[in-house]
Structure formats: structure tokens, C-alpha cells
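The records we work with from here on pair a chain with its fold. A complete example follows; check for yourself that the lines match position by position.
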Amino acid sequence: MAIISSYFQGESYGVLGPQMAASVIRRNSPCESIVIALPAGYKKTFLKRALSSYFGSQMPIVGFSNLSGREDLISLARELKKEGAITILAGPQAAVDYCGEKGRRNWRHRFKGFSDHFSFALQGPAEQIIPFLDDPVNIKWKALHGSAYLDRNGSLIRNPANDWDQCYLDHVEWENICILDRSGFVPLQITQGQVLQQIGCPWAAGRHRIGIDFPAAIPEMTGKKIHINSKGCSFCDVAVDKGFFGSLDLATVLRQIKGLPDGPDGRKIPFELINENPFPSLVSLIDACLSRSLGLSKIGLAVRVDALLKGARSFRSALQLARKHRMVIVLASVGFESFNNVILRNLNKGVTVSSNLKAVRLIRRLKKEFPFQLSYTRDEGGNHGFIHPTPWDSEETLARNQQVIGNYGLDVDILPYHSTPLIIHHDSALGDWIRAVEAETGLQYPRMNSWVEWWEPPAPS
């Protein structure tokens, strides 16, 4: 089996989800499995030649994960399927992307799904694929947990996924990822890994009833709101997909860290700790690593603002420990997203501009106290959340955002080089919102596969 993942040209970071899936497959099935990191602009002729050499006379089984909306990978899956390969859509929201958008039968412009691009989809834990790999010919589809597929009558079937099982999550083979060149697949030397400590986000654990403004481009609806349910941030399709499973136990996390490659100095390569709220356990995790002679060089954190504020004391203690052991802790991404309360409310961030600025002051204060242990600026690897443009941008919201940015010098150290346009996945809470906008106004926003192109002028129904 080969798993294809979107990738950036010239980088050397790991891709935890696909690499962990390939590791599960190799350890628990008769299949070999590799991960192919494909940047934009890859040579399709090189890829097909390399795949032919890899599979030989065996049935090609090609998984796709982390598509990042790339049309070239989506069309590749369809092409490989037509040529006789088994193509599998995996990763977050795989099942709903395979099946298509709500209301697609009544609204022709809505996303029809990828059932003609992929043989089937698999959502949730990777070990669910094992019964298929054991016997692809005689598989009983109704028993394949987490799968979405077309039955013999052409009807869409979706099976519920299994819960996550920690016994499959303690091992990643970091040498199983490769890149493509003229000669075929070449191993990729990983210099930055990831360690899974938490599945999902605590903010996604609860269901929130929220009121979201109509798009600013529909002035006749100014002041009116659409009320929807949201698990976590309204734009986050991963929150819908995973919710909040919880944290893995310390032993599982330590086994992952132990399996990371060593860097040139003998310590573990830098890694991102996947945990939206790592601060309560960060000191104990570092202590446990050091007591087991697991040398740490650099830990990256991607966190929520409220988690950072609540965990300030624990974070300071972790930085003291980092100073003692010559480590670096990088605030790789803090989810500010906006410095305007209207935008933050519509994104259901659960924080305010005041909270964001309090977090900025905390970060800057800690940087003065721990200049060599804490990194957070763009030049130091920080890429903090800042979503722009959004459907609610107006002269007023833009002016207030710019006023805060200027008053607090956020463009000096906090803002990323480029903002991230709001992406509305069809199965996010904002997907429900845009469909309600369409029903209320009679407008139809175009779709780009699984994304809603809210930035394009809508058409009348």
C-alpha cells in the first residue's frame, strides 16, 4: 500500500497522520506501506512509473490523506481508480467528503462528493483498514468500521467508526516517508517530527448554540443572525470530525518520543506536541523524558489563547526547566485568529480581543525573562493564527483590527507574514451557516470541491 500526502517542496518535516497509519498497517497486516510526500508541481509520469515499480504485479492500493484541497491530487485519485487501482480517501472528514454535502440532491450547486474519485473512504483509526488488507476480495463491507462506500445498487453506505485505541498510537516509523525524483521514490530525511498527546480539542467537547451574522456583502440582512450549533470553533471541520477524545497516557506519549530520530547532537529532533492545552502536563512530560535519558532539543506548541492564559504558571515552570536543560520551547501557533470581537464571535473562538492582548503581553513578558528558551516570533518559527479575509469584513471591522494591530505593534512579532483566508468546509458549523444563508436569501455560493467559495459572488437560485 502507498499513502499519498500533500507536502511543501523542499521541506523535511514529518506527516504524523499518514506515517502513523502506515506504521499501523506494517505492524498489523500482511501489507508493506509507505508514505509519498507530493508537493505541487510533481511530475505525474515519474509518479506513475515509481508506483508501477513499487507495486509490481500486485493490485495497487493507494490511500490519500491531507489533500489540502489540491485539485491535482483529487484528479490523480480518480485517474488511478479508472486505471484499476483501489483508491482510498482517508484523514479528517473522509466519510463526509466521499458522500457529499447536505442537501446536494435538492441544490445542484452543492458538493456532490468524491464517490467517483475513490473506491471507498475510511474515517477514524487506521487499524480499521486491516480486515480489508487481510482479504480485499472477500471483504464484508458492512463489517468494515469507519468506511463509506457505494453498494451494488449505487447507494451510499456509511459505517460508524471505532473509538481510538491507544495501543495503536505509541509507534511511528519515521523512515517510511519518501519523496519523488526522476529515479523513483527516495527516503526523506526528517528533521522535524510530531508527537500525539491529545486527540481533538477541549473546546470541541461541548455543543454551543451561536448566532452568526449574515455576510457583510448582503447589506439588507445587516443586524440579523443565523443561529446554529457548533462544536468548537465554527470554521473547524476537525472539531466536527474528532470532537474531543481526550489525552493519551504518559507511557504512550513517551514511547512516541523514544521512537523519534536522533539529531546531530544526540538529542531527539525537534517535534510539535499535538495538544491544544499542553501546559498542565508539560513539566511532568519533560521531567519524564529526562529521567529516561530522552534528550530533548526543541518542543513546538500549537495552543488556544484561553489555554495559554490558564496555564501561564505551568508554562513558566516549563521554561525554567528548559533553561536548566538547554532546551527551546516554541510557541509555534497561538490561535488568535482576529483582533476584532465581531470576527471572533462569528468564528466562535471562545475568546475576546482583551483575551488575545492579555496573551500577547504574557508572551512578551516571558520572552524577556527566558530569551533563549522561548521562541515565538516569525523569525523563530512562530506562525500564529490570523484569519483574513472573512465574510464579515467591513470598513468598521477592518479599521478596528488595524487600530489594535497598530496600537500594540502586533505586526512586529505576532502577525504571520501572510494571513489565512477563511476556509469554509462543507461539513463545518459554517457550512451549516452558509446553507442557512442560501435558504434565507435564495442565493447560491459556488463550491470548490469540499470548500464553499464564499468570496465569489453568489448566484440567484
Summary: Residues 353-369 form the longest helix (17 residues). The radius of gyration is 23 Å. DSSP finds 15 helices and 23 strands in the chain.
